[in-house]
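I am still getting used to backbone structure tokens and would like to learn alongside you. To get us started, please write out a protein record for me. Start from the sequence, derive the backbone structure tokens from it, and show both lines together. Once you have written the record down, we can walk along the chain together:
***
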Amino acid sequence: MSQITAQMVAELREKTGAGLLDCKKALTEAQGNLEQADTILRKKGAASAAKKAGRSTSDGLVESYIHVGGKVGVLVEINCETDFVAKTDEFKALCRDICLQIAAANPSYVRREEVPEADLAKERDIATAQVAGKPPAAVQKIVEGKLEKYFSTVCLLDQPFVKQPEKAIKDILTEKIAKLGENMQIRRFVRFQLGA
């Protein structure tokens, strides 16, 4: 077993934003392996967020962003449970990051459930036509893979975060829920582009 140093704890805390004690426990559980400790913390964060998912989010912020040059603008509503959390710098930074994401990645929907069935059927048909002639079991897997890629393009929560492409927006949101201790939801957004 590897010795847990203060530097290791600090590195994990910087990477995840988790508390010192949680980082130390995760490192101990992972026997000093930073990657495993990160995974442990992310799983705990996801479990914590899942417990809060049913709680009402009646407070929050409407954040705006105008891109340099004034050609793209975004309004987003992100909800949380209390005005206490809504006023924190951490929550405000999340709102700004989500605005930046929408401006840069141009999603069409917040979540998968909002994608119209007609659009999904069209994407399935296109994907199926692209893999014609392959074995049926392979076709199904390929089509599902292409639909996942489609979701990561049009659904905000499935998109890779522009500042950390290894994480999806839903992972960033889950981390904030775990860190701030309240349920949060990206309720809606509007993206304006000059001439579009």
